[in-house]
């Protein structure tokens, strides 16, 4: 998806309908900041807003995704292209989240027997220490890999200004979090809030 092109297209079609950003925002029940963000190519409408937005602008979702008016002949081909691209983008992010969870589970499975062995079997102290150290190393490495994959999957959205951004590795690791949210500082408005994870930037 070319967000800049889509943004320009939304702006053009909005003006064609003689709506201000504020008027269109009111119809859709969102803030005019959100519209302005889309039009600058910095963010993309939530799935639930796609149909209402297209209806208001008198365009199809397919034209929106492609960022231009389509001729009858092109239509089917572009529709298929859009579909494939969307599925691909969603899959990439989802794959990373699943992979990250998988890595976390695997390292715990791999690390635990080392601790158990160190506790259960008779052995020299140095061997016991080595086993425990290896177990810790495996788990730490695994967690680092899981974090890298998880951070790269999608982005986080600021609840204040709806900016979508990728935190730095340090911010990501240090942040308090729940399963779907992380307490991060928004690079745009500066608010530190629980930002929800979104699959696309
Ligand atoms: Zn913000």
The largest β sheet comes out as: 4 strands, antiparallel
Q: Specify the overall morphology.
A: elongated
Helix content: 55-70%
Q: Determine the structural class based on helices, strands and strand pairing.
A: alpha+beta
Ligand inventory reads: zinc ion
Given as residue ranges, the uncertain stretches (5+ residues, pLDDT < 50) are: none
What pattern of helices and strands is seen along the backbone? HHHHHHHEEHEE
Question: Would you kindly provide a brief summary of this structure?
Answer:
By secondary structure, the protein is of the alpha+beta class. The protein is built from eight helices and four strands, in the order αααααααββαββ.
Descriptive labels:
3 domains; binds zinc ion; 4-stranded antiparallel beta sheet; alpha+beta; 4 strands
Could you please describe the fold and organization of this structure?
The longest helix has 49 residues, at 72-120. The chain has 3 domains: 3-70, lambda repressor-like DNA-binding domains (434 Repressor (Amino-terminal Domain), Orthogonal Bundle), CATH 1.10.260; 91-152; 155-198, no CATH class. With 201 residues, the chain is α+β, with helices and mostly antiparallel strands. Helix 2 crosses helix 3 (32-39) and helix 6 (72-120) packs antiparallel against helix 7. Strands 2-1-4-3 form a 4-stranded antiparallel β-sheet, with no helix packed on it. The chain is built from 8 helices and 4 strands. The chain has helices at residues 3-16, 21-28, 32-39, 47-57, 61-66, 72-120, 125-152, 169-174, and strands spanning 155-157, 164-165, 181-185, 192-198. Bound molecules: zinc ion (ZN). Residues 158, 160-161, 163, 186, 188-189, 191 line the site of zinc ion (ZN).
